[in-house]
Write the structure tokens for this entry.
Amino acid sequence: MADSPISRRTVLKGLGVSMALPLLDAMLPKMAFGQQAAARVFPRRMAFCYIPNGVLYSQWAPTGTGRNFVFSKTLELLTPLREDVTILTGLTCDKARPNGDGPGDHARAQAAFLTGRQALKTNGNNFRCGVSIDQVCAQRVGERTRFGSLEIGCEPSRPAGGCDPGYACAYTANLSWRGESTPAPKETDPRAVFDRLFANNQPTEVGGNRHRREQYNQSILDFVLEDARTLNNQLGVSDQRRMDEYMSSIRDVERRVGAFSPVQPQGQAPATLPRPAATPQDYRLHLRLMADLLTVAFQTDLTRISTFVFSNEISNRSFRFIDVPEGHHDISHHTFSPEKMENVAKIDRFHMEQFVYLLNRLKAVPEGAGTLLDNCMILYGSGCGEGARHNHDELPIVLAGKGGGTLTTGRHVRYPRNTPICNLYLEMLDRMGVEVESFGDSTGRLRNLA
């Protein structure tokens, strides 16, 4: 192993490729007797996973509080991760309520969830909301990473029109907002996210690389072999093993991303061909590919902040693959039909299953004496409590990860009714090293998290 640490910003380079690396022992400073610093401070990461249309709360809410709580039928999927999560109930998104604006709860739910601001009621282009909490954080710490933030999702945005009575589609299609009238659009194509994470800053090289990969069934790893061999000679045995595992995981993601990528016609100039939009038809595969890419982005410190929209608010996606043919939004208004309620619960469990997949991917990445998940705060939830009621209190919120050891997990914490969720965001910002006095409709910091 090299005597001096390898830079954390070391990348493997090749035609059109700039591949960031996971944290290696060789990147850590040495102590007097050649030991890596045990007290290494790892960067903290923050992500927000959004589900639409609320949940069937009677099968979502846990019973009991503190460490002795009991998971509900929906949350029981988190059982193997019990010590990695905190269930938070009683939190409210007041600015998703009408507050004199009438119908439009779904649009307000997504618009207000991370902003804590009342969306201007309009179905035109003069939409206005507020800066979202992820972007507040990105403005302060985003310059430390290649990407200030990463916005991903599995349902595309609608560019114009109204998607909820009186409200523009911009509200139901965007979770992240850089400015009051500037949403941060999410990327829904896994191939585009993959290219963004591993491309260099030379567009013509990127196009040529992509063309060769698609035409000759090559991997991006083929383009960085020389750099990889040089780096390998500087690494110890444990780092070599870690690099082998990392490269294998990248190849696996690339293979699955490429499984649905159209091949460009031979003989056409790759740099001038528009990239056809394509996403997996399999919704489960789509969600998991995005989860894999988010894990890689956090693992390689390409970003520390992300939003992940499972589906847009008021989504009417069919879930035939889990025997729920009806549209999600339609059956969320179940009118207490036992069959519809059970189908809503099936969708809730499906969403939770995908969240568990993401958490397991993060937990599988070693980081120091713990895991990548230990240094994350992954919030999962919705701006609606129960779709049938259009309520915005009793939000279904799970906070996963230990925030670099600053969160006491394995608990259900119950807060007084109407406690603003923005109080939680202030605490999350504190843990990201961003101190602000207030945010959205906050009334103070959320206590009892540590």
